[in-house]
Amino acid sequence: MRIPFEEVTETLKEKLIKYGSPEDYAGQVAYVMAENSLEGVYTHGINRYMRLINNIRDGLTMPKEIAGKIAGLGGYEIWDGKLGFGIVNAQLCTNRAIELARTHGIACVSLRNTSHWLRGGTYGKMTAEAGMLGIHFTNARTNMCAWGTQQHCLGNNPLVLAVPRANGDHVIADTSFSQYSYGKLQLARLEGRMMPQPGGYDENGQLSCDPAVILKSQKILPMGEHKGASIAMLLDLITAVSSFGNCASMVAKLPGNDEHSFSQTFIVINPLALGDQETFSAIVENAVNCVLNAKPLPGGTVHYPGQSMKRYRTENLEQGIPVNEGVWTDICAL
Amino acid sequence: MRIPFEEVTETLKEKLIKYGSPEDYAGQVAYVMAENSLEGVYTHGINRYMRLINNIRDGLTMPKEIAGKIAGLGGYEIWDGKLGFGIVNAQLCTNRAIELARTHGIACVSLRNTSHWLRGGTYGKMTAEAGMLGIHFTNARTNMCAWGTQQHCLGNNPLVLAVPRANGDHVIADTSFSQYSYGKLQLARLEGRMMPQPGGYDENGQLSCDPAVILKSQKILPMGEHKGASIAMLLDLITAVSSFGNCASMVAKLPGNDEHSFSQTFIVINPLALGDQETFSAIVENAVNCVLNAKPLPGGTVHYPGQSMKRYRTENLEQGIPVNEGVWTDICAL
User: Fold this and answer.
1) A104 contacts in chain B (CB < 8 Å)
2) Tens digit of pLDDT for each residue in A21-42?
3) Global ipTM
4) Structural domains present in chain B
5) pTM for this structure?
6) CA neighbours within 13 Å on the CB side: how many for A324?
């Protein structure tokens, strides 16, 4: 079934208010979750809503709280999220970093004790909309093997990188450091496909391309062997120590049935404070065109990162957002 | 053969002076290149020296030049490298970013028109030695396929992330975004080994695990399929637009037989300006111990990133640096 964007947003907002959220936070969270689905990131939109409600019920997300500033020096500030909505806190800190970058050229807002930010690309897009560069990252519970072991020691720790384009079609990467995301493995299992490369270990510790086997063992591989593992570990450390918050292995030891008390970092650079728009755009278009003009593999296409957002947005605004009927029934029954 | 660190450094310095370098730059470049080999990064130490000399001969590296500041706002500055030594420029900009982070909390020095920085970990280590966090990256000539094409559109664009430890054994990741580095493929070819996962395409466009075949086609894969390609493209864009310098596709079009005119970005965060050493160290040790205590795969070990540096350093200081005889003969004959 497909449901209009406005109806989705209204419904999500209404239920959040029912579960104790002030109206403004409810509106903000509902809008972003609906927009994540609208732009094709179905794993981090409406499909995560029941989990958010459960986190509120379990006291892991505190709907009335919002992040507050703890300390600052120049363009660098530490904020405490008080377990408030991940979306509300992350938008607040992104906006604060953008504001700081206007006067300091570069800014870093590091946030501790916050909740899942859902789609990281949301905050990259905000930074790009402000005409600035974004380097944003979060940690996670330890859900990925380090290299050389089959034990979970690392989060997959998504990294968001954003560069604005004058036409609004920004270049935005939003990737975790596992070879395949849990969402991608689930989709392949559903469609009965093998992964083209090994994505994890089976129960006997052998490398496997079978998504069902990997999802069962939960032993997912970092991408690029030790390389992805190294970057994931360092991003975790940088966000944790720059916020004086939890690293992934500390998050993993906290009580509660789901993820909470993450650390997140929002770095914003303001190049147009020091140079002109024309040169800036010429550089970006050179790189974008190099990719767009490449010859695709037979039957495929070549994209720049973030390119598909616009297509999904246009289609889903026109036709409504595709929603799983069971998921929607559960939400409406709240 | 093995040669003492001091002898290597003296020889490299002496030849650089002969090729037109002022004594101080020569000493700095010689020390870093010798240290890269000393710490086990043989691909980016002595083995690259003849290529550096050739770049000086060809006018691609200008041994008398050094980077100068172009513009600045708060913690953010743009510098122009004037094609000077990559090592001299990168050390200058790292130190400048560290200095700026003392007063601004966070700093970003973006450098354009510079030369190859050799081992990125050098600059991560400098930042960690100053007790700060480093996020440093460079672009490259387009040497990697974008996802969905077999054409080179992207650089492998190394990223360096550094976190200090109180005991001096810092956690430092220094990785490019190809599935395997050219150095690793060359080593596997030499040893007659296949790669455990596909690392590129063969001449007919099929995925291949054979390092000889991949090195012949030069069609190396990004790690994590589209993920590594996305990050590589964005890092390239961020460094190019924040320095108003060249992106990878612009570097690829420049004249000359080798790489030059890169963009590089040095971001430094100063957490100890806002928090205490004890809490900082507790977070870092928690993450490090989570990895070190993991059960290794049979016959293997589990490391944190950068851990092997110290072992190589100790061994090579005692026994001398392993040097290829042909390479050393060529250098001595300069």
Assistant:
1) 73-76, 104, 106
2) 999 999 999 999 999 999 999 9
3) 0.97
4) 179-221 (3.30.60.50)
5) 0.97
6) 13
